[in-house]
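WARN no homologs supplied; continuing
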Amino acid sequence: MSKRYGSVTALDRVDLTVEAGEIFGFLGQNGAGKSTMINILLDFVRPTQGQVEIFGHDCHRESVSARRRMGVLPEGYDVYDRLTARQHIRFAMESKDADGDPMELLDRVGIADAADRQAGGFSKGMAQRLVLGMALVGDPDLLLLDEPTSGLDPNGAVTLREIIREENERGTTVFFSSHILEQVEAVCDRVGILHEGALVAIDTVEGLRSSAGGGTKLSITVADLDVVDLGVVEGIEGVESAWLEAAEDRVDVTCSNDAKMDVLVALDDVGVDVVNFETEEPSLEDLFVEYTGGHD
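OK structure emitted
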């Protein structure tokens, strides 16, 4: 699926399937095309080429049917200052022609104790949870979350992630669009990386690590650096690079996950006394830089 605005390509031949029941992270820098993708899902924008389906419904020819299956937490939302939390949920129920108990939904998002408070006095985190509660009206099969943790303090972000996981455990599929890498890594089953309108990678975080060449860092503290032969280490299959950190009596190695034990065995075989070792997996941020070429 592609979307062009004149000579500008916002989305370039994006081919993506989100599995039912998963939390899918849609990751990209500002301007990568994430908002265009979401607007197409919501039928606010039509693709130039291709089509999008949600649970078998074409987002454009059957937009009403597709939207019935969705709950949306948009970026840049507003609440009605003078309406209470309970009134917001009732309004969403009337708009969706849905039944339910407003208090049950407010309890699910953790603000039942503020049901009769006016939303104008809510913190950013409480307002975010209120809008998420409105998105949950009608028990949608798909939650579409656009930058859901943006502007939240760390505690608020953690609370929102917990709510998202709980809803996913109820069977809801979650499409989590964000540029905040640590939030995506903390909650998502799979991740798609969008860069300049193109989907450059899609996999689990572990799968992305493997595809990017492993990148595990192994830090080995030894009793005597003088007996370390870097050539022996670098000759092991799966080792990408090795170097000495003399000030800390340490050998640092980047290698595939499978090569870690081979490195330790090889050092022991040549008489190196290993005092301690630690491994460090590349973060999603490291992988993002790898897949996007480090562009800002």
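The first strand starts at residue 3 and ends at 5.
OK
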